[in-house]
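Reopening this ticket.

The earlier resolution said the output was attached, but the attachment link was broken on my side. Pasting everything inline this time so it's all in one place.
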Amino acid sequence: MVSQKNLFRLSLLLLIIIFMAMPGCAGTLSPTAPAATEEKHLYGPLKSGETGNSPTYYDFDDVLIPPELKLDTQKSMVVSTSTFSGGVLVLNGYVDQASLIDFFLKNMAKDNWQLKGSIKYRHTVLTFEKPNKGCVITIGENAFNTPVEIWIGILHEPGSGQLPLRQPRL
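Inline output:
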């Protein structure tokens, strides 16, 4: 019986051998060009420069997302009511965990978030706060993928009628 750990090692070795046997294909891929079948965000980005090459704000106008991360709309969820807005943005990409941590620490501070705590190593958790807002960012580390979840909660004052989220295009 093959253990799950040994199966993973065997699969990884097989992938390395396959990639080494196909060196001619490496020059045909463009890491910065968006894929033709790239899934678009439900409402589109709030602010962006060149698509795929610069950081983007998605549903929340004060949480910047690096261009290497792609939004998974099937796993993400955003809710907005008269007193609360929030949800989770699920993103994936092949990005170094340490560079993602640096990106979020720098850009969250630029958007006036205060770092309240962190946990690091296999998974990193960063917690941020603003008046009436909270944000938790988890950064995982897998062999060929860096999963990121951004949890956000925003409390609105009753009667403000404020909905900071972008409304869907109908």
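Reporter confirms the inline version is readable. The beta strands are 56-57, 64-65, 70-71, 77-80, 84-92, 114-119, 124-130, 133-139, 148-155. The longest helix spans residues 4-21.
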